Amino acid sequence: MKKVIRITALFLALLMLALPLVGCDNLDELRAKQGFILDKDTISFNGNTYKRLYTNEHLSSTEWRDVNITEKDVPVLLSEMSSISGGGLYTIDSSNIFIVWNNPESVDEIYCRADKYEYFSDLLKEGIVYDKFCFYYYGFVEKDDDWKDIINILTDKEKAAIDDIIKNYPKTDDYNLEEGYDILNIFYQSADGFFEKSSNIELLVSYSQCYIYVEDEENGGSIFSIPNKYKKLFDGMLKNYRNSMYSW
Questions:
Q1: d(Cα 151, Cα 138) in Å, to the nearest integer?
Q2: Strand 98-102 with 222-225, pairing
Q3: H helices of the chain, where?
Q4: Which of 79, 98, 128, 138: CA 20 to 30 A from 190?
Q5: CA-based nearest residue to 36, from 45, 27, 28, 26
Q6: Long-range own/partner contacts, residues 165-171 (CB < 8 A, 24 or more apart)
Q7: Is the pLDDT of residue 14 over 90?
Q8: What share of the chain is helix, strand, coil (3-state, %, to 5)?
Q9: Which is it for the CA torsion 20, 23, 24, 28, positive or negative?
Q10: Rounded distance, CA 68 to CA 47, Å?
Q11: Helices (H) and strands (E) in the chain, counts
Q12: 132: helix, strand or coil
């Protein structure tokens, strides 16, 4: 009984300490960010139910925001503290379809909104088809007047060009990378754009150069020059990235 009283007293003390620090606007923001654990496989957020998808696949998105998922009896003032007490962080994607618990000790847990659960559950059972290439870079988004992670989806022609160079052109030992070159990791992406996985391909890019690097654990990496027939295509593919990186 005394233990229960001490825990209750501590809880009330924390609540009283938090109350003066939270204004009305902040309180509304905390309410909007709070969701609840219903059981080990189900959570609720913003009037929607999310069910856990058991998968090791990785989601693809540039825009995630933090949310606070707590037990149902946790008051809003303590929701942020309680949500991260397990050492992880809950985030929701820009489409509001997925909530992910970023587990620091194991694989991330993915929860899918109930109205989309059957579709994605069946998709995972059938197997994700990764038929796109993409890369990310940090750039300025004019409409948001802010710097953000930007995803660049390669066109079919750009993807085919990379495949062609790797398969049908010799690797080069004659390269001289400019100082300050950047590495753009190429990811495989699913047709619907929701899932991605890493590849063994990188683009080594500077203001005026681009090489393709292919990692090979057995034989070491290989570097390929961009043939003249593809230079214009690659310049177009990298135009936004270069404008973002070298125009300021």
A1: 9
A2: unpaired
A3: 2-18, 24-33, 79-83, 114-126, 156-168, 228-237, 239-246
A4: 138
A5: 45
A6: 165/212, 165/224, 165/226, 165/227, 165/230, 166/201, 166/212, 166/214, 166/224, 169/224, 169/225, 169/227, 170/224, 171/222, 171/223, 171/224
A7: no
A8: 35, 35, 30
A9: negative
A10: 14
A11: 7, 14
A12: strand
Amino acid at 38: L
Query: Residue type for 190, please?
Result: S
What's the pLDDT at 175?
85
Which amino acid is present at 180?
G
CA 58 distance to own-chain centroid: 8
Q: How confident is the model at residue 2 (pLDDT cuts 50, 70, 90)?
A: very low
* Torsion region of 184: left, alpha or beta (phi above 0 gives left; psi -120 to 50 gives alpha): beta
Beta bridge partners of 49: 44
- Say what the alpha-carbon torsion angle 143, 61, 71, 122 is, to the nearest 10 degrees: 140
- Tell me the pLDDT tens digit for each residue of 157-183: 999 999 999 999 999 988 888 888 999
CB 185 within 8 A of CB 196: no
Q: Are 138 and 155 in contact (CB under 8 A)?
A: no
Q: Which of 174, 154, 155, 162 is nearest to 200 (CA)?
A: 162
Q: Which two tokens stand for residue 5?
A: 């009283």
Burial label, 84 (beta-carbon count in 10 A; 0-12, 13-18, 19+): middle
In degrees, rounded to 5, the angle at the alpha carbon of residue 163 between the alpha carbons of residues 157 and 167 is: 145
C-alpha to C-alpha distance for 184 and 212, rounded to whole angstroms: 10
Rounded Cα–Cα distance for residues 68 and 85 (Å): 11
**Model's pTM, two decimal places?**
0.77
Q: Would you list the DSSP string of 167-187?
A: HHS---S---PPTT-EEEEEE
- What's the Rg (C-alpha) of the chain? 24
In the DSSP assignment, the letter for residue 144 is: G
